[in-house]
Design a protein that fits this description.
With about 110 residues, the protein is of the alpha+beta class. The protein has one domain: Double Stranded RNA Binding Domain (2-Layer Sandwich), CATH 3.30.160. It has two helices and seven strands. Strand 5 and strand 6 form a beta hairpin. The longest helix has 19 residues.
Length: about 110
């Protein structure tokens, strides 16, 4: 009976989280690499990814993003992540990597 109420109110006895990162795919765009890493949430996938750019002597700067968009298919989430990554690059331009932070959220 207690497990029924736990499930009803969103508490499960499992230590495993429902939200985990799915396999990542990459796409090159405007001297950057967009990495799609949709997050599985139950039966859906949340739009998530990162934009990476090589800076001089082997250094890499990373800008991560997670959006509220949910998709029923992992491939749809990946496609939308690439579109969002291209949009972020186009809209922010050089200022995306102008600070000295190795990584940050955008």
């Amino acid at each position: 009976m207690a497990s029924f109420f736990s499930k009803l109110f969103g508490r499960s006895g499992s230590t495993e989280t429902e939200s985990h990162v799915a396999s990542g795919k990459t796409e090159a765009y405007a001297e950057c690499t967009i990495r799609a890493t949709p997050m599985r949430e139950g039966a859906q996938f949340r739009l998530a990814g990162s934009i990476e750019k090589s800076i001089g002597e082997g250094g890499v700067r990373v800008r991560s993003f997670i959006r509220a968009d949910l998709f029923t298919s992992e491939q749809d989430a990946i496609d939308a992540t690439f579109r969002k990554g291209r949009q972020i690059i186009d809209q922010t331009g050089p200022s995306l990597f102008s600070d000295d932070a190795q990584s940050r959220q955008v």
